Amino acid sequence: MNKSRRDWLRTIAAASMSLYSRFAIAKEIQPKPRDLSWKFPPENPFGAEFPELDSLTTGSWWKKTFAGPYPPPSMNVPRHEVVAFALYTIDRSTLKLTAQLFPLMPDESHHVRLEILRGRRWQELAQAAVVTPGWSAHFRIENWDGTRDVPYRVRHGRRASFAGILRRDPIDKDEIVVANMSCNSSRTPGLRREIVDNLRLHDPDLLFFAGDQTYRHTEHTAGWLEFGLQFRDILRDRPTVTIPDDHDVGQPNLWGENGKRSSLRGNSDGGYIYPVEYVNMVQRQQTWHLPDPHDPVPVERGIGVYFTRLRVGGVDFAILEDRKFKTGPAQRLPQLGPRPDHINDSAYDPRSIDKPGLDLLGTRQMKFLSDWGEDWSGSLMKAVLSQTAFCGAAHLHGPRQERLLADLDCNGWPQQGRAEALKAVRRAWAVHLCGDQHLAVVVKHGIDQFGDGPYAFSSPALVNSFYPRWWRPADDRPGANPVLASTLEWTGDYHDGLGNKISMMAYANPADIADEKRRGDGYGIVRFQKRSDEVTFECWPRFSHATEGRSAQFSGWPITIKRCDNDGRRVTGWLPEFVFASEIRPVIQVIDESTDEVLYTVRARDNRFQPRVYSSGTFAVKIGIDAPTALTFAGLEPRSQAAAEVRVVSI
Ligand SMILES: [Fe+2]
Fold first, then answer.
1. What does the pLDDT average to over 270-279?
2. What residues sit around ligand 1, an ion, with C-beta below 5 angstroms?
3. 581 backbone dihedrals φ, ψ, rounded to 5°
4. In this structure, what are the phi and psi dihedrals at residue 417, rounded to the nearest 5 degrees?
5. Which domains does the chain have, with CATH numbers?
6. Is 502 within 8 Å of 391 (Cβ atoms)?
7. Ligand 1 centre from 266 Cα, in Å?
8. Most buried pick, 270, 416, 513, 583, via CB within 10 A?
9. What is the 370 CA–ligand 1 centroid distance (Å)?
10. 306 CA from centroid of ligand 1 (Å)
């Protein structure tokens, strides 16, 4: 059945209305939700042709055992443990929380309750029905007071409970700490105690899992429960962003191509191989708890979208889906290697694969990124979160260390889409955090010139037993402009295999993939320092001791950058310095009047801001408190920094 865009909008509006009315702020206990949507998941809920999908948690799941290596944890837990874990975010006074349950028995209640501690008494805030397939339950509470820590628990039946703390927004902290994580190999089952213990020492304000939370492909619910058990002791008491990547939806690679169906082995024809209901279940489990989608219209076939923004402690995170809209390479490009997505022909011209009509982030997401960049409400600094890197910063791939010239399964391709996305990130002086690559790197992107773009940090694989990668230039030589005093051999300016300019700042190559302590497993810590207006990227080995400080990090880390250096264009002149009342940190936008191009829209570091420009001509400066909408100064001409005038401005 084909639904028109308008039908989808109606469906979404109706669904969200019922959700809002169901969970509107609970000053009193909410009535028990109606059971219309409840359905015990039968055998093969995704169709008879997909009996392998979620088989461990559907039908007579309690009779099933996992056959194969690396078994997931048992799905049949003592009944007082059926609430496995919970994930939440709070943005603009709305709490969204997902509770993840183990599969229930047919005769068990399918309701869970969210309770918070008020004074010394637990108070029920709302109830929710468990959604199947997938065994998740979802709470949306408006008018949430984010100024204080609130203990919560999710309960099922009389005995099952999962408890944590809904943290207050750390807006008064100078340093906002984000854990940057990805790629949690399912070939190494068991707990992640060493990582969680370290994370508790770092005490992040936000956890970001960029994808490949599980590699169980056809058994997402079992894999997701495994991930939850591994990380729940850090998840339970802080906001968390989880976004699914290719392996989470059961694919080796993912070029979502607006939701179409993929039928080619390796999926390089674009789209999804598994049914829409399976993809939507994965997205529901991993992303329902994020702030409401910015533009919730599903893509083709009814696959949902979740790209959105989240503010934590004055740092504004754009959460992207860099795989969903992207075009697949097969049948669009000449095959230049053993697979449609791998290029090994050293004679190929990277420009030949940058064809018109290829999408990276897609029109809707680019519009979101652009709007987000100009809205600084509730934020002093910005960061973009997505699955993978806007470059191919790896040379050797896989356990046999095969050298590959270019891999199209990264955001370095299509190059034009990369340039547009990075320009939008640069306009907001944002950094980019991602995962996917199984190789930790910090790069400074070049768009037209080396170093003119933003900084980006790809996290290491949490557990790197799936597919290792290395940074090792073919000539074994450092690039131009290497990082001064770095302990690493190959830093500096390079072209990746797609012709993109990158400056390698730091990497964390596996030393020995047979030894899990020297395999490059680890996690990133990113510190947003509001007073100094700097960002520090740290990279910690999985088995390090966070108490030992900087020397316990991978060699070459940490890297500290100034926020304004996310825009590295060569400065050719300065506009008048604007000075405001002492308590004001305005938002400043600079526009090239000859092209109407917005050069940047940024929050000033303090109450003075002198706009810089990158060419001659005349420029307009727009100024406001949270967006550049209050004042406009037109026809400004650049001068040298010392010669430019000072203007005292009140807004
Ligand atoms: Fe991965």
1. 98
2. 183, 212
3. -55, 150
4. -65, -40
5. 16-166 (2.60.40.380), 176-210+306-385+387-566 (no CATH), 573-648 (2.60.40)
6. yes
7. 15
8. 270
9. 28
10. 20
